[in-house]
Description:
Four copies of one chain form a homotetramer. With 341 residues, chain A is of the alpha/beta class. Chain A has two domains: 3-67, Alpha-Beta Plaits (2-Layer Sandwich); 87-336, Aldolase class I (TIM Barrel, Alpha-Beta Barrel), CATH 3.20.20. Helix content of chain A is 35%, strand content 18%. Chain A is built from eleven helices and 14 strands. Chain A has helices at residues 12-24, 51-58, 111-124, 148-161, 175-181, 195-201, 218-230, 258-265, 274-278, 281-294, 320-336, and strands at residues 3-6, 28-33, 38-43, 63-67, 87-89, 92-94, 100-104, 128-130, 165-168, 184-187, 208-211, 236-240, 270-272, 298-302. Chain A has an eight-stranded parallel barrel, surrounded by seven helices. A four-stranded antiparallel beta sheet of chain A has the order 2-3-1-4, with helices on one face. Chains A and B meet through helix 2, helix 6 and helix 7 of A and helix 2, helix 6 and helix 7 of B.
Amino acid sequence: MDIIVLNPGATEKEFRHILKKLESRGLQANISKGTERTIIGVIGDTSKITEEEENAIRVMPGVEDVMRILKPYKLASREFRAESTIINIRGNRIGGRKIQVIAGPCAVENKTILMNIAEKVKEAGATFIRGGAFKPRTSPYSFQGLGEEGLKYLAAVRKKTGLPVVTELMDPRDMKVISKYADIIQIGARNMQNFRLLLEVGTSGKPILLKRGLSATIKEWLMAAEYVMSKGNQNVILCERGIRTFETATRNTLDLSAVPVLKKLTHLPVVVDPSHGVGKWDLVAPMAKAAVAAGADGLVIEVHTNPAEALSDGEQSLRPDDFMKLMRELKPIAAAVGREI
Amino acid sequence: MDIIVLNPGATEKEFRHILKKLESRGLQANISKGTERTIIGVIGDTSKITEEEENAIRVMPGVEDVMRILKPYKLASREFRAESTIINIRGNRIGGRKIQVIAGPCAVENKTILMNIAEKVKEAGATFIRGGAFKPRTSPYSFQGLGEEGLKYLAAVRKKTGLPVVTELMDPRDMKVISKYADIIQIGARNMQNFRLLLEVGTSGKPILLKRGLSATIKEWLMAAEYVMSKGNQNVILCERGIRTFETATRNTLDLSAVPVLKKLTHLPVVVDPSHGVGKWDLVAPMAKAAVAAGADGLVIEVHTNPAEALSDGEQSLRPDDFMKLMRELKPIAAAVGREI
Amino acid sequence: MDIIVLNPGATEKEFRHILKKLESRGLQANISKGTERTIIGVIGDTSKITEEEENAIRVMPGVEDVMRILKPYKLASREFRAESTIINIRGNRIGGRKIQVIAGPCAVENKTILMNIAEKVKEAGATFIRGGAFKPRTSPYSFQGLGEEGLKYLAAVRKKTGLPVVTELMDPRDMKVISKYADIIQIGARNMQNFRLLLEVGTSGKPILLKRGLSATIKEWLMAAEYVMSKGNQNVILCERGIRTFETATRNTLDLSAVPVLKKLTHLPVVVDPSHGVGKWDLVAPMAKAAVAAGADGLVIEVHTNPAEALSDGEQSLRPDDFMKLMRELKPIAAAVGREI
Amino acid sequence: MDIIVLNPGATEKEFRHILKKLESRGLQANISKGTERTIIGVIGDTSKITEEEENAIRVMPGVEDVMRILKPYKLASREFRAESTIINIRGNRIGGRKIQVIAGPCAVENKTILMNIAEKVKEAGATFIRGGAFKPRTSPYSFQGLGEEGLKYLAAVRKKTGLPVVTELMDPRDMKVISKYADIIQIGARNMQNFRLLLEVGTSGKPILLKRGLSATIKEWLMAAEYVMSKGNQNVILCERGIRTFETATRNTLDLSAVPVLKKLTHLPVVVDPSHGVGKWDLVAPMAKAAVAAGADGLVIEVHTNPAEALSDGEQSLRPDDFMKLMRELKPIAAAVGREI
């Protein structure tokens, strides 16, 4: 809280009451009396003023509005750390010059299919394998994932291909088992404000892929990263995956402008998931290219050898051939923005 | 999945392949050849077709679109159960003729304040006490609740006032401790699609107050209820608390039309939380009245004896006097729609 | 523009350049140097600073943000005029104690049907007849209205029933013909920011029913009213009719909280159109009741004797019997909020 | 309208009544009786069924829902015309291999500034000059444009530089004067559903740059194009410029996925305006690159020699140097997607 705007009708008594409140918190007030409003600039270490105190001041008699100038997140901000964060995972540097590609099926279904997909995406140039063992599904009657069995398949794939594993955690009680197998722990869009889960992965020692919530503002998203970082885990990767809007032609609206916006606000790496963003496989390639052109540090792409039989999200999965073609086409775009892939 | 629309250019072979797929699932096809499109009506027990299979058909060659006629939720639907559900909690019947009012502070802060608020809201006619002991906060640096200490204060309040207790569960690991004290377990908006938490409370034996997610459609909300009900817990109360839109004049946009829409689609009781819906105390009273007029079975209202010192959401809390005035003003509106309060 | 926030890295030279700019505009600066930001409070008659100048300052080197404290609308604001505006149209006072009901078909189709509807809604208690002679339709192949012929039917209805006429203007070239027949000129949601049309009706001498745009904020809506008022026409009636959100269970999301928000911000009367807001006839009655409970000054309701044959919006029209029942049910709700109907 | 879903409780009489209605329109019915619903597939030339008739059937007793299979637009659809439309304007082919760049100030302010900007953008490779002579502004107190004077300056610029002119039409009464000077007539976002204006430019004989409305779905946007085309003008260029969402970090949310979606649905050229899309000059370059990578046929970019003194939208204007740098950087991206710039 940095600026307090008074009501045009605020009384002298109300005014003094507010000043006293600030004083009691060790803050000074700089008063600007305009022709129509009086404004109080709050001077001192306002970063210690909590959201609660800000709201309390907002309801004091005589107050019209309170405006906070400082950003509510600290550790995640570029002001706190000017240099871009690079996260090194088994030699793959997320946030560095090379664009990292996390590819694989939506859900882990069986070992053979997964291995097959993994070998194909590796050949095409992917640098991470992804696949859900615990799946958040809108219906309780849908396939919910293979659980630890699926995690074992992912580990087997890593052993054979060398690709590090990205997989989702949905429940704090699964932290141990996920940590045993994952190289990067994914927090899904629906859990972006599951604050307990965020605190939990803050102590995991693993890099976190934090997907943007369906209706999360960029500020709220950075606050979610701040939750993880406040527990000591500075390795957070932000993943834009589309927001909910009125448009129904695509599954979500991929907000690519979030990429340059985040590059200004935070030092954390930013990746884009065009598969969930658009929800239709034939729109994935153009949006993957656009994401790289906009400055993304990486891509998350769903690939399946047989989309028509996939147990989850087949509609938005690329076939290995299409994925390989896309990887080839991304090369000159990455080069055009001073990156490689 | 009930209707399959073919591409104008679908080949005979693709067409036969789709028919074979349906046959293999024990389903029959009724074919309508129009001038511009061929449509397949799928006959048989299509409710057994999973979302996965639906998506798989959607990506088969020759298919343009797949439309599901049946609703994806069952136990929650009015078709499954025509009679409105009434949930009896210590004699207070939610969903009955009497409008239930759940009132109290956003967060439990200390025993004296809570008791004071509880006695005042009881006197005014509230039938439940609410208060968070575990608080979801957008900032990790904000007050996160008193934990079990707060639950004990709520129980003490119940003992003294007789008001049953509504409090939020954020983490499956807190289920035991919450169940020990709560009469109704609240699932907050940010956890509406925390599917593990939903399954957990499905086995709790306690009625669930399920808040609508910030960007949840009514269908997704009913699917979340279905998660709880699929575990055997039929006592779900739906709570409209505002959705996220482009408008910033209010904290959220309270979607009161959800009340009559839900009354058609489901047999579950529907309550409205105008405090979170609008986020400003002086808008709460008109929206509470509107909610009752629209047919809500209950209200959730934040009340605090000293909003300017509240540790959470002071901005939207009513003072006890304003709450008492509101309760008086609600009486003739309830009567006008054939209810009492 | 009242507050200028400087970049943490703003130089002394940039700072002085900004101060000089303010001086050149006859404004004074009150400087608050905080620990992390410097803030300039601008003192003087800032209402004369245009949006252009505000934006110009925003891009000056050293400026991080510019915040405007004063509202951008003046004539429409409650601060400009504390007393609520009442608009008297042939004895019906919009904004007074009595809730006004504007009823009728979406489009004027033929004289007999219109007269029949008008007589029925009058009998039920409606105080205005509505009907479109010029219709905005999403498809160029849909019925576009009868034009002046339709206006003549409306005038005939007024002559027989005494109900004043509300009808929409879509094109500045139709101002003359519409003015000849209408008592209130409606500006539709899609034209809320058709600024030329707003200026045109600002000189019409007729009261204006200004519908909220599908994605208009309350502030933009008041700016649209300001356009009309800036030309000398103070008789603007604001009509909430639903905004566009992600929810598809209703045609739009009726934002009833706009009613109490507007009552604080403006002195203009506020009416609600639940028919367009929800788009389904069986949701109209509960939302009409909710609108009155929320404090609306009037209702706009579509009524048709034969919705299944209506040339426009049959889906959301009430039959005369249902309308009569609704009018009866609204009486005790109006009484409960100190109004009559 | 192609599919009618009956209520589970529809009576035999209601069913026969619906069939008779279809018959009376020369349509046949193909009936699918499922276990839980009966579905009627409507066969025949359903494209002649108007929206009104569709709505009328929707409210017939026994009907639960009506689903339209065919798209409501025809002339704009790829099915109607498979080959992509290329619009040739003084030798610049919009929709061809070369990406067209429309650059210039938001508003025409004076002749010298405009000429200066035009010469600089031409040098950098722009192929069209843009500038508003009639400006839609949210405030009636803001600069509204120079009118015909501004158009004359644009014509002078064209004479000197050879750049064809793009300028906005806001009012049907200005059609003649705009047509006298413009090479492309722009319809702004706020007028996308100003249907009278659309019909007017349908007879103008000039190519139309049709900006997407702030809350327009892609389908509604194509319907707006259909309005223009229904009057005989097939030269419509669609311009994505951001939609309104809950996110406030950018002025609008630029929906780049609209580009590949449109490329499937329509043969019309698609251009992108990143300046309005993001509203901040330093986000324009990454989003311009992303737009080209996503497959856009052109760009609309605001350029001003002195953004801090611009009378409109200075905040989002590039300086000529930045624009020149961007044009250079776009070259390899255009090449990567098989285009040139």
